[in-house]
Design goal:
The chain is built from 21 helices and no strands. It is mainly α and about 475 residues long. It is globular and about 65 Å long.
Length: about 475
């Protein structure tokens, strides 16, 4: 059978199964916006676990890590490990507190304790960051499909096809669809990456042969390639993100109880730790086998050397990583719009049925908007790190509110968000401001300082009855 035909059949079968899952679970989200956006708050530990893995282990954690490893070696795998560390910290600290609050969005927390102005700015920041992250999944999805079927897809048409699947699955079934699909996605991507790593290492003569042909001496070093400062920065950024990003918080809020939320994040974090290093190792081997290709195509190009059935399944598994990440991000961005903007400012009295329709419409429109972002992005992980740093303000606000509410001022959150935006704008536009290794450190210093200073000067604490125990 023709290689391209085999891979087309695999991709079509995979897409068909995803849509069948979405159609099957749609009845569980019908008639209720809470069912649609939070799976009725009935998600079990395995569903929480695969949802957080599915969100984290996306295009950046596979294609992006291999791209980084192509030039910097095995240490690029720390990016995905940093996601795992962040999920574990979330499980040990805030996952149970978020679930106990019984909210729907992080913006709802901002409104409850800091007012509507703070909520409005928070919504804008959260949606923007999530659309930037999601656009990276379009880029990675286009790269995978164009490598898998170069006669059928270009990177642009691969992006468009990815968009149809991402938007379609989310539109049909919401959180239930995303979580159930992740059972398939996560299983497929872990098996695919493991099988590809084993087969490719065997094909090149085993690890001794890999070591003999290293493109650079530090290629298999766990630290020196990207350097300890970059690794620490990834960990700081991704702990920050896990504590504050709506897409992650929404997963914890969908758990059936507090203990389930906590266990799901802990198990998910542990299982994430090794997968990035497997992708990084494949990136190192790609640099040996294909020394003059675009780094972003390293992993798909290498996998295409495998048996067509294994290559098709493995690349479908990498595409599965994109699907699982994009669906959660798209749903959370749409939830923020429908729950906090449309209901909060446009139609406060809208019914459950109308909120469900508005959420689905937001899924469609926001999904299409990300295509524009995707066309302007180059380096996957570099772009992601800058965008995610904006989550620092949310992390500071949430930690202070949940742990020391008696020291929180009513305007501290508003000023912290504004300063966070200012810091990122200055960093992006004035190179002379780069006196620290990464913008995340400037964000933490500025946000903690602003929150504490405003709380100290203003002395207008949030109402005692609203404090979180």
């Amino acid at each position: 059978m023709n290689h391209s035909l085999i891979q087309i059949l695999i991709i079509c079968a995979y897409i068909g199964v995803l849509f069948l899952i979405s159609g099957y679970v749609k009845m569980r989200s019908a008639g209720s916006s809470e069912n649609y956006v939070l799976a009725g708050r009935k998600m079990t530990t395995p569903l929480i676990m695969v949802s957080i893995i599915g969100l984290a282990v996306g295009g950046a954690s596979t294609i992006g890590v291999a791209e980084q490893a192509y030039t910097h070696g095995l240490s690029a795998g720390w990016y995905t490990a940093a996601w795992g560390i962040g999920a574990i910290i979330m499980g040990l600290t805030l996952a149970k507190k978020y679930r106990r609050m019984n909210i729907t969005t992080v913006s709802e927390l901002l409104e409850r304790y800091y007012g509507r102005k703070t909520m409005a700015i928070g919504i804008a920041c959260q949606i923007l960051v999530q659309l930037v992250i999601m656009s990276l999944q379009f880029v990675a999805g286009g790269a995978i499909l164009s490598a898998l079927l170069p006669d059928v897809f270009t990177p642009l048409t691969g992006m468009l096809t990815s968009a149809v699947v991402f938007i379609g699955i989310t539109l049909i079934g919401g959180m239930w669809s995303a979580s159930q699909s992740n059972l398939l996605n996560v299983t497929l991507q872990y098996m695919g990456i493991a099988a590809a790593a084993y087969t490719i290492i065997s094909m090149v003569g085993g690890m001794p042969a890999v070591q003999l042909k290293l493109p650079q001496p530090q290629a298999l070093d766990f630290i020196s390639g990207v350097g300890p400062m970059t690794i620490v920065t990834w960990i700081v950024v991704l702990i920050t993100v896990n504590l504050s990003l709506q897409a992650i918080i929404q997963i914890s809020l969908g758990a059936k109880d507090v203990r389930t939320a906590q266990k799901g994040f802990l198990w998910g974090g542990v299982l994430m730790l090794p997968v990035g290093f497997a992708s990084a190792l494949l990136g190192v081997i790609a640099a040996e086998v294909y020394p003059n290709i675009a780094p972003a195509t390293a992993l798909p190009r290498l996998i295409m050397t495998l048996n067509p059935w294994l290559a098709g399944i493995t690349l479908a598994s990498l595409w599965a990583a994109d699907v699982s990440t994009a669906c959660n991000l798209l749903l959370s961005a749409a939830t923020l719009y429908a729950h906090d903007i449309h209901r909060g400012y446009i139609d406060p009295t809208m019914s459950e049925q109308k909120q469900l329709r508005v959420t689905r419409a937001a899924v469609l429109l926001l999904g299409l908007l990300t295509l524009g972002f995707a066309l302007t992005i180059s380096g996957i992980i570099t772009t992601l790190m800058a965008g995610l740093s904006l989550m620092t303000a949310f992390a500071v606000i949430v930690l202070m509110t949940m742990y020391v509410p008696q020291h929180c001022s009513q305007n501290a959150a508003l000023w912290t968000l504004l300063v966070s935006i200012l810091v990122l704008v200055v960093w992006m536009t004035i190179p002379a401001s780069h006196i620290l290794p990464h913008v995340i450190y400037a964000e933490w210093i500025a946000c903690v300082g602003t929150f504490c200073l405003v709380s100290l000067v203003e002395r207008a604490p949030i109402p005692a009855v609203e404090r979180i125990r």
